[in-house]
Design brief:
The complex is a heterodimer of chains A (380) and B (649). Chain A is built from 14 helices and three strands. Chain A has a three-stranded antiparallel β-sheet with strand order 1-2-3, with no helix packed on it. Chain A starts with a helix and ends with a helix. Chain B has three domains: 168 residues, Penicillin-binding protein 2a (Domain 2) (Alpha-Beta Complex); 336 residues, Beta-lactamase (3-Layer(aba) Sandwich); 55 residues, Trypsin Inhibitor V, Chain A. Helix content of chain B is 35%, strand content 23%. Classes of the chains: A mainly alpha (380), B alpha+beta (649). At the A-B interface, helix 8, helix 11, helix 12 and helix 13 of A face helix 2, helix 3 and helix 4 of B.
């Protein structure tokens, strides 16, 4: 036993050496979350997959492929010095714009129940906004770092970035994908805050955005009904409040210890999109409150390690980049979970690393690759 | 935020340019990063708290919803009890059948399926196509399909189709006692007759399995929720007092009799006058409960219990019984019959045949309306009413069958002289065939009004007797002497009166004919062309075994009860007594079997008749074409063989 323990220590040390300064905490938390994701995607989708495709591991197989691509991307970006990215900040911004415009063109963008968020590119239904949001973060990190001296001005410090990001947000709203747009706006304000924009301006612009948000909600029927059903899901339990209620039921069924892995009743078509947007509810049902705490802790740990990397970053760009990516992933995860437990109205957001959804998984892992690249450079 | 500003160095600009130039030694917005990080963590904490509330503190509501939507009941249909006749012959049994359903979404080869189902199940292609294109997750294709048809479809291995085993109610004897038995709907609920009346007993208790189901209501193949499974309890068997052999005889004779006179409908009750057991009960047109949907409401009615009508002269025995019991007349008391025409308060009543003077006995024998009216006058309306009530008219008999009518007997206060007169020959009162049978049984059994019943026993699946009906005497209506006297008079009706067609060779038979007009509700008078012909009687009259009531509604070729109903009565009584093994009177003991005489010449027939000592009546000339009794039937000494002859064979 002792010998074994010694071996383990040795092995761990080897890994540490091989990791060559990459933040092991981030790697471990991402692997843990991805592994949980794989497990839960299989658990939540098998019945549906069997019914729809006659193969209960249909979604799992796809998920593994995406996971593999994502990991390759992550490792690739890990080895590239993140500072190189800075050189391509503008082309990448333009590329993101291009993708977001492309998806809006009928025939290229796939119309799924009135929304044009996906492009079919063969092996994967590609979701441009998932990639574009990280491209925007790279751009913002670069721009904020470059304009540090002018960050306390209103026009150059705040408005210019808001306009540049606003273009993305507007295009995403056109799809429409209200959830991603909201996440992007929140992340933008987070970055401006970190970039030391004046709080006074941020408050003013924040209020302005809120007014815009309210307008967007009021003018679009489905958003209004989502908000209303958020306020009182029981009013229309079979209509707009259905998902929320079924999600509550899932959590309730799970209780403290959960009903056991694979034993969810709610995934039997009661809760639609159980393997994507509402995977957290099934985690709550099958793994219980314990499972919920486990996942939440995973994300908190991830965020904590990432922020540490941001603080230790060798330069401001790296710091902003890591922070932006962390913010994007952290807020999306938090929002997804908050929707599941009924704190926020329903949005179409995935749970990073865990939900089934190719683009989201791949780009999140890509972002982790960038964070890891910064973490290595930050080691003294 | 203010604090943060204070902490920062005053000269921002200078510091910043310095920091940038310093390269690696950077100033970072530590505090702002920590604040932002804290915000994210706060979101996660909020999620955890809310999850704790949902999962630990406030689970109840969620569990309630979950239970209602995840529980599925799978009903286990119990075996429905059988219905048996008094000799345990099966009248209603169950057959395992298959109900075929479809899950339209799972159909893979719709064309093949449509072909197969339309061919095997006798559905049109459009019907099947509609089912296949249904948006519902589950549709019935056909309920209760015969096992061999179902197994043929099963063998074809079509996708999207499924089978559920369900018991199907079968009435193996077709229309035999159809209206009495009633029938069940497709879910085995009794909706008419005994099936309805004893549904609770027959049905048993359905069991249920509680299963987990998905949002589409399908059963999930995992262990059931722990809510318990209830076994189904089979229904109890019901044994009726009916004798299917006699019921068969009754139905055959009723059909023949009704069709012979082209009547609208007919009914018969055969009852044991001593016990009240209903031995046979038939309504024509018949109802085959296996295909009950084919028939309208009129045919579904169990006529002897439900149909009430003005009885006509069959009421007279009860009038005479009352008058004798009250000692206002004796059998030999005579009345002036006024030559067949009597005027009462402006109305005229008539006899079919005019008589001058008739005794009370002859009143029944010849069925004189005028004499009956005079007997009623002597008796008085209050006493007459008392006896009508006493014999059970105007009240339900209380038989254990659904849909019984009580008939109508108006109160004597409403009777004027004309009403009393018409009542004496059975107009202005309505009765059911079962009431007549019960009342007549009181005369047959020596004066007791008994409650008729048709359910003999109820036996649970373990063989325990749950219920056993016994003879219930409701009251004594008349004395034994009176009953005897009326019986003798009724024997005379058959021997030498209007009921001669009811004569059964070898047995003493008591009976009474009835011919009534049918009231026209529009005019308040009577239809001139509608009649109800009936015959009521019992036999053997010295030791009655059966009371028989025959009612024929709207006969076309003739309308006298003695012509229309009496022959049916005779056939039923003769065959039933033979079946029951009731010995004929002395001298009738040796029964002969009628040979097939068809094709024989008149001479040959007469030679045979002389040799055998059989009375023969020939009709026409040439060779025998029809004979009555038919070949193989029993002939006794009184039998007159009727042979129709024809010139050519």
């Amino acid at each position: 036993m002792k010998k074994e323990g010694g071996d383990l220590k040795k092995v761990y040390g080897n890994i540490r050496n091989k990791a060559k300064g990459y933040d092991l905490g981030i790697i471990v938390s991402v692997f843990f979350l991805s592994a949980m994701g794989m497990l839960m995607v299989y658990s939540t989708s098998s019945v549906y997959a069997l019914e729809k495709f006659g193969d209960q591991s249909y979604f799992l197989k796809h998920h593994i492929v995406y996971l593999f691509i994502g990991l390759v991307g992550m490792v690739g970006l890990m080895f590239i010095d993140y500072r190189v990215l800075r050189r391509f900040a503008y082309p990448m911004y333009v590329a993101g714009l291009f993708l977001l415009v492309l998806v809006l063109i009928p025939g290229i963008g796939k119309d799924v129940s009135g929304a044009r968020r996906w492009m079919d590119i063969g092996f994967i239904t590609f979701q441009p906004s998932e990639v574009a949001k990280f491209l925007l973060i790279i751009y913002l990190a670069h721009s904020l770092a470059k304009k540090r001296d002018k960050m306390d001005t209103f026009w150059v410090g705040c408005v210019s970035h808001i306009l540049m990001a606003g273009l993305y947000v507007a295009l995403i709203l056109l799809e429409p994908d209200f959830g991603t747009a909201t996440i992007l706006v929140v992340s933008l304000f987070g970055m401006l805050f970190i970039g030391e924009a004046k709080v006074k301006y941020l408050v003013i612009l924040g209020l302005f955005s809120l007014a815009f948000l309210a307008l967007a909600v009021l003018t679009e029927g489905y958003r209004m009904s989502r908000v209303l059903s958020f306020l009182d899901p029981w009013k229309d339990p079979l209509g707009s409040g259905y998902q929320s209620i079924q999600s509550f039921v899932a959590f309730g069924l799970g209780g403290f210890w959960g009903s056991g892995l694979g034993d969810s009743s709610q995934k039997l078509f009661f809760l639609p999109q159980a393997h994507t947007d509402f995977i957290f509810s099934i985690i709550g049902e099958e793994l219980g409150f314990i499972g919920v705490l486990l996942i939440v802790s995973g994300f908190v740990f991830f965020v904590f390690r990432c922020l540490k990397v941001a603080l230790n970053a060798p330069d401001v760009f790296g710091c902003y980049l890591v922070f932006g990516c962390t913010l994007l992933i952290g807020i999306q995860a938090g929002t997804n979970m908050a929707v599941a437990v009924g704190l926020f109205p329903t949005k179409g957001l995935t749970l990073p690393f865990i939900s089934y959804g190719g683009t989201s998984l791949i780009s999140s892992l890509g972002a982790v690759g960038m964070i890891l690249s910064v973490s290595r450079a930050g080691i003294k | 935020m203010g604090k943060e500003n204070k902490k920062r160095p005053r000269n921002l600009k200078a510091n910043r340019s310095k920091r940038i130039s310093l390269g690696r030694e950077l100033y970072k917005p530590r505090l702002r990063i920590l604040i932002a990080g804290l915000m994210i963590v706060l979101l996660f904490v909020a999620v955890s708290i809310k999850a704790f509330e949902l999962q630990v503190l406030d689970r109840e509501k969620a569990l309630r919803i979950a239970m209602s939507q995840h529980r599925g009941f799978f009903t286990l249909l119990p075996r429905r009890g059988k219905i048996l006749d008094s000799n345990n012959k099966e009248l209603a049994v169950n057959l395992e059948a298959y109900s075929i359903y479809l899950r339209p979404k799972e159909v893979k080869e719709p064309r093949k399926l449509v072909d197969a189902l339309s061919k095997r199940l006798g559905l049109t292609r459009d019907e099947v196509l509609n089912l296949v294109s249904s948006k519902k997750p589950f549709v019935w294709v056909k309920r209760l399909v015969e096992p061999d048809v179902a197994s043929k479809i099963k063998e074809m291995n079509l996708g999207g189709i499924g089978f559920i085993e369900e018991p199907k109610r079968i009435y193996p004897n077709g229309h035999l006692a159809g209206q009495v038995l009633g029938f069940t709907d497709i879910d085995s609920r009794g909706i008419e007759g005994v099936e309805y009346y004893l549904d609770e007993v027959l049905a048993g208790k359905p069991g249920k399995v509680v299963v987990k189901k998905d949002a589409r209501g399908r059963q999930i193949l995992s262990e059931p929720f722990d809510f318990g499974t209830e076994e189904s309890i089979s229904g109890a068997d019901v044994i009726l007092t009916l004798n299917s052999q006699i019921q068969y005889i009754v139905e055959r004779e009723l059909k023949e009799g009704v069709e012979r006179v082209k009547a609208e409908k007919g009914m018969v009750v055969v009852m044991d006058p001593e016990t009240g057991e209903v031995i046979a009960m038939a309504s024509y047109p018949f109802l085959d409960p296996n295909n009950f949907k084919r028939y309208g409401d009129e045919v579904r009615r169990n006529l002897p219990v439900w149909y009430s009508f003005e009885p006509g002269s069959t009421i007279k025995p009860f009038l005479v019984a009352a008058a004798l019991e009250e000692k206002v007349v004796s059998p030999s008391t005579t009345f002036d019959c006024e030559n067949g025409r009597r005027r009462i308060s402006g109305a005229v009543i008539r006899d079919v045949h005019p008589y001058k003077v008739l005794s009370v006995s002859d009143t029944l024998r010849l069925s004189s309306n005028i004499c009956a009216s005079k007997i009623a006058e002597v008796l008085g309306k209050d006493r007459f009413y008392k006896y009508l009530e006493g014999f059970g008219f105007g009240q339900k008999t209380g038989i254990d069958l659904p849909g019984e009518s009580s008939g109508i007997v108006t109160k004597p206060k409403q009777w004027g002289p004309v009403e009393l007169a018409t009542l004496s020959f059975g107009q202005g009162i309505s009765v059911t065939a079962l009431q007549l049978a019960t009342a007549l049984s009181a005369i047959a059994n020596g004066g007791y009004l008994i409650k008729p019943y048709i359910v003999k026993k109820v036996i649970d699946p373990e063989g325990n007797v749950l219920k056993e009906n016994e003879t219930e005497v409701r009251r004594r209506v008349i004395s034994y002497e009176t009953a005897r006297k009326v019986t003798e008079m009724l024997e005379a009706v058959v021997e030498d009166g209007t009921g001669r067609n009811a004569l059964v060779p070898g047995y003493r038979v008591a009976g009474k004919t009835g011919t009534a007009q049918v009231p026209n509700p529009q005019t308040g008078g009577y239809y001139s062309d509608r009649h109800i012909s009936s015959f009521i009687g019992f036999a053997p009259s010295d030791d009655p075994r059966i009371t028989v009531v025959v009612v024929v509604v709207n006969p076309k070729t003739s309308f006298y009860g003695g012509v229309v109903a009496a022959p049916i009565f005779k056939e039923i009584v003769e065959k039933s007594l033979f079946y029951l093994g009731v010995p004929p009177q002395k001298g009738f003991a040796e029964a002969k079997i009628m040979p097939d005489l068809r094709g024989m010449s008149a001479r040959e027939i007469l030679r045979w008749a002389e040799k055998e000592g059989v009375k023969v009546r020939l009709k026409g000339s040439g060779y025998a074409k029809n004979q009555k009794p038919g070949a193989g039937e029993k002939i006794t000494e009184g039998t007159v063989c009727l042979i129709e002859l024809e010139q050519k064979i």
